Amino acid sequence: MSIQQVTVLGATGSIGVSTLDVLARHPERYAVFALTADRKWQVLATQCLQHNPRYAVLNDMAAAVALAEELRRQGCKTEVLQGADALAQVASHADTHVVMAAIVGAAGLLPTLAAVKAGKKVLLANKEALVMAGGLFTRAVAEHGATLLPIDSEHNAIFQCLPNHRADYLVDGLQSSGVRKILLTASGGPFRNTPLADLKTVTPEQACAHPNWSMGQKISVDSATMLNKGLELIEACWLFNTRPEQVQVVIHPQSVIHSMVEYVDGSVLAQLGNPDMRTPIAHALAWPERIASGVASLDIIATARLDFSAPDYERFPCLHLAQQAAARAATAPTILNAANEVAVAAFLQRKIRFDQIAQVITSVLDKQDVIEPDSLELVIASDQKARELAHSVILAL
Ligand code: NAD
Ligand code: MG
Known about the structure:
By secondary structure, the protein is an alpha/beta fold. It has three domains: 4-150, NAD(P)-binding Rossmann-like Domain (Rossmann fold); 152-310, no CATH class; 330-397, Rna Polymerase Sigma Factor, Chain: A (Orthogonal Bundle). Helices cover 48% and strands 15% of the residues. It contains 17 helices and eleven strands. The protein has a seven-stranded parallel β-sheet with strand order 4-3-2-1-5-6-7, sandwiched between helices. The protein has a four-stranded mixed β-sheet with strand order 9-8-10-11, covered by helices on one side. Helix 2 (41-51) crosses helix 3, helix 10 (217-225) crosses helix 15 and helix 15 runs antiparallel to helix 16. The chain is globular, with a radius of gyration of 20 Å. It starts with a strand and ends with a helix. The site of magnesium ion has 4 residues, from helix 7.
């Protein structure tokens, strides 16, 4: 097998670092083609020295200048590029085979779509891209013959539990493959048992301290509100060609089962493993083969028990909002996602309280009309409008 050239979008983040860890274990299979980040040039410099990519891209201009200078000083041949166009350029480059889409938020949409339109093997961690523009995104995958593989642990688990002939359900819907429903598991985050009254005063540090997973700040807050599970419900509908009613959210605090698929004959298939993103990353990288990921063997005896319960919407209003947006479809998920990104950033900057994240999303969804998103321009305009509305709602709180 020839060596696969891999572009990692969002290399300095939690998923990016785990991806580089897996790639470095298999130098006979993979080489790093390009690494990208927003502005953390020192981290990117260290990664370039270790992995020797052909390109490094930073979103921020001053950071790109600093990186180029540092790499020159160290004698590293990596070429430094800057800006959104350069992200799309390395994601769609003729010499890259695999693209890990691990930018956080809506900023990941255009470079990920560029990879899709170039027919790449795209490993999708950036769920916001799919939530924001699912219809356009999945049509582009089919039209350009891209291979889309899920990195989100739940979706990777579902993918592993579905039949191999996935082309069938992508055309005819999941029911045609004998699937009755998807059981989407959720840990419940750090506030699963916190007294409701205390949710008004929780800090960004507490919200980011996830009990089972170590992740970037934005997804950590989304896990604490469970908006993350709502985004994942929408993501599952697009990835597996199914309807929100066919997806049941289940709280499973141990995060050992990563999701399940129930068939019409009553069989329920689950994928289990330690909560470490290197498992889905290695799975998607090598699919349909299997490679080592560095993840320790699951100690099922030490795990001892697996608990399940239904989510509580009073505690997790964001999950309910996302379920409603999923049912409403059109640009409702785009608006939900944009309003959430602005609200989470404001919470992390201590401008709003944790419980106000749901209030901001509710107000924006009430104020903005939902339309059929039949072009990328319309999707981006809806996203922008929702961000503006969210900022004004926050100012008025
Ligand atoms: P992170 O915050 O740790 O990293 C984000 C990366 O995106 C960084 O490299 C950052 O430089 C880059 N980035 C941010 N804004 C950018 C911009 N405007 N332009 C270009 N690059 C930009 O986030 P993460 O936890 O690694 O998550 C990345 C994505 O993967 C998210 O969409 C998240 O929902 C998804 N995901 C993460 C996990 C996890 O365990 N961390 C699990 C499932 C899904
Ligand atoms: Mg997940």
